[in-house]
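From the methods appendix. Each design record in this collection lists the tokenized structure first, followed by the designed amino acid sequence. Records were kept in a plain field format so they could be parsed without special tools. The example shown here is representative of the layout used throughout.

RECORD:
FOLD TOKENS (428 positions):
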């Protein structure tokens, strides 16, 4: 979600999309949609041609009706392998809403409460210490004033950070002691060896200081990863098995999971990073950790799947927890998920409202091209992005495979704005 920090999109880009949108035939919804779809496709093609984007899939639906279906660019740029509709993408943090839904399902079943201390299920996190002063090698802590709760984990107010989300002594401690999973996101050569499994990561977090007192403020973090460990403790099942049985199978998400098998390897996209010099391949399908069945099951960032699969999940959210007559989560808990639980400051010129694993759009985010008003959304480090608007039935999805950082972050807002504007022009 670093795109919220980058607001340098040029007006010319939005103007170009809008100009195309105005050229449609007013007498026909289908004809009126054709112009903005063509213009969005042209804009994506141009981004691919100039090396700003390896490839992308964009889908827009409203109340189950497919309004836009765009596929452009490459699965592998160097090999010139065209991107296909059944390509498999790294979801990164778009895994978070899925794991959050799994927690809400357990709450629906009475197997946990959202105000439960996480230490009830994960003893390693029962008695946490909070950073008070000192550098990374001389940290002074104070006891946490209260336990971390499930609610804190759902809202990223636990005090647990990500190793790459700052440079405080606590972040430095995370890096030094390998409090991370093995992923190219935010890694540096100086970091300690990453945790090899979920239990080890939770144990390392338990020995680390919290960045602040639980519930004090928002800090994007390993909180959702910890929720995966809670799911395992409560259900008695491995996280991959629980998600498969309770979410992926009911939603017919047959191409989503933590692993890429031999039969799907030819559809797994190459991972890229954006640099001023162009796209750089940072993860090849054949050597990806997704091929390792012993990898850390990170429900906060380690799932992979197709665009069509994630669209089914997003559709379930748009329908308040129901999919094809099957209810996965109560509407009451979905309403809580979609309601502001914490305010995020410092991610843009205006505060951002956040529910359970999802950001909440308002007039300010809409005007900036970040997220439509009235929608809920989230994104992943590979620039995947989706939003749903339960009132209008609109679901929009972007799947791509490029990590951006530093001076290149303007690209992220550019991608989001294109999708948001397209959805606005072709829905009603």
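DESIGN:
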């Amino acid at each position: 979600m670093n795109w919220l920090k980058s607001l340098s999109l040029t007006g010319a880009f939005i103007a170009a999309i809008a100009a195309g949108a105005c050229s449609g035939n007013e007498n026909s919804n289908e004809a009126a949609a054709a112009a903005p779809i063509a213009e969005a496709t042209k804009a994506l093609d141009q981004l691919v041609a100039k090396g700003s984007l390896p490839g992308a899939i964009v889908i827009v639906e409203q109340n189950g009706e497919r309004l836009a279906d765009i596929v452009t660019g490459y699965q592998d740029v160097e090999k010139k392998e065209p991107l296909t509709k059944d390509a498999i993408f790294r979801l990164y943090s778009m895994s978070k809403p899925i794991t959050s839904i799994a927690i809400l399902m357990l709450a629906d079943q009475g197997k946990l409460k959202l105000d439960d201390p996480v230490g009830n299920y994960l003893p390693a996190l029962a008695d946490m210490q909070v950073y008070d002063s000192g550098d990374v090698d001389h940290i002074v802590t104070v006891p946490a004033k209260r336990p971390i709760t499930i609610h804190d984990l759902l809202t990223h107010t636990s005090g647990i950070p990500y190793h790459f989300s700052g440079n405080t002594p606590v972040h430095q401690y995370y890096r030094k002691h390998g409090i991370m999973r093995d992923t190219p996101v935010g890694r540096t050569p100086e970091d300690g060896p990453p945790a090899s499994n979920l239990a080890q990561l939770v144990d390392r977090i338990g020995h680390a200081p919290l960045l602040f007192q639980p519930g004090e403020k928002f800090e994007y973090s390993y909180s959702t990863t910890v929720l995966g460990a809670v799911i395992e403790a409560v259900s008695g099942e491995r996280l991959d098995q629980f998600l498969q049985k309770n979410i992926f199978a009911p939603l017919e998400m047959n191409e989503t999971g933590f692993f890429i098998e031999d039969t799907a390897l030819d559809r797994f996209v190459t991972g890229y990073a954006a640099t001023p010099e162009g796209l750089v391949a940072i993860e090849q399908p054949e050597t990806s950790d997704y091929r390792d069945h012993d990898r850390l099951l990170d429900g906060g960032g380690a799932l992979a799947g197709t665009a069509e699969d994630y669209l089914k999940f997003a559709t379930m959210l748009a329908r308040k927890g129901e999919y094809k007559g099957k209810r996965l989560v109560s509407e009451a808990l979905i309403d809580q998920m979609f309601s502001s639980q914490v305010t995020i400051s410092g991610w843009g010129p205006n505060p951002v409202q956040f529910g359970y694993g999802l950001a909440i759009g308002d007039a300010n985010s809409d005007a900036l091209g970040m997220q439509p008003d009235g929608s809920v959304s989230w994104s992943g480090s590979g620039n995947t992005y989706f939003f749903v608007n339960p009132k209008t039935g609109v679901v929009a999805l972007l799947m791509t495979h490029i990590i951006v950082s530093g001076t290149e972050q303007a690209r992220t807002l550019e991608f989001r704005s294109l999708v948001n504007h397209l959805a606005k022009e072709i829905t009603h």
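APPENDIX NOTE: Residues 382 and 401 are 5 Å apart (CA to CA).
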